[in-house]
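Notebook p. 47: complex prediction with NAP.
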Amino acid sequence: MITLTGKTALITGASRGIGRATAIMFAKAGADVVINYASNELAAAEVVSACEAQGVRALPYKANVANRAEAAALVQKTVSDFGRIDILVNNAGIWKEAAIDAMTEAQLEEMLAVNVKGVFYVTGEVVKQMKQQKSGKIIHLASTAGQRGEAFHSHYAASKGAIISLTKSLAPELAPYNIFCNCVAPGWVDTDMSHDALVAADKEKILSLIPLGRAGTAEELAGPILFLASDLSTFITGEILNVNGGAVLVG
Ligand code: NAP
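Predicted complex, structure tokens below:
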């Protein structure tokens, strides 16, 4: 039922974790994919090979999304190589700890630059292309933290809250152009980002707050992202899809 054949998808932060799983799942569904990454060239090359093995075109593009010029170049390169952008997944993100009274200017600035400004930069450029096409699907990655907060990660939680309100703003702004904007909000997912916390001595505290009793896998996030990118979700825009084993209900 789900096919992305003939579509081009740009996925930020696709060298590892949820972005990687999403790129490979999109390739299985037939999409050509752009694998954006910040620095991990080897990991990006591995994802490209895994996507090409599905018979689609895949290219790795290095760009720091927090840099406006690099974000613009990423989008322009995608359009010049593939001719169009049908799907944007704003997945690149960072998660770091900082108590509010110890948070440095650099820590706050980095978090907002990558998790918020990066999404604005890439989306702004992609929307220019999607408006010309009169179609497009944009999927942001937020977090349970953006809805219920997260102690000692207030800058992260605030960045993801911003992504949720961005989603709700862009849905009506872009609907006249047949551009959809939705958001997937993961709970705990076992990736490089969260692995240390999920194997730490007090991991039971985390697991006890997840009704399904475990962290999710990157693939379990890629499926809902694929749904929102596909033609099975043509009446959904401005939605926040929680994928968290029920955690947001009890956290
Ligand atoms: P991850 O395993 O740490 O992977 C992060 C990816 O983002 C990598 O591909 C990395 O590239 C890329 N990246 C980081 N900074 C970048 C930048 N400035 N420009 C371009 N790319 C950049 O992360 P993940 O767990 O898959 O998380 C993906 C998204 O889901 C994030 O937005 C995160 O906040 C959200 N999320 C994750 C969890 C979780 O438990 N894992 C929970 C809630 C929300 P390199 O490989 O080159 O470094």
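Notes: Residues 77 and 245 are 37 Å apart (CA to CA). The pocket of NAP is lined by residues 12-19, 36-40, 43, 64-66, 91-95, 114, 118, 141, 143, 186, 188-189, 191-194 (CB under 6 Å).
Next step: compare against the earlier run before touching the bench.
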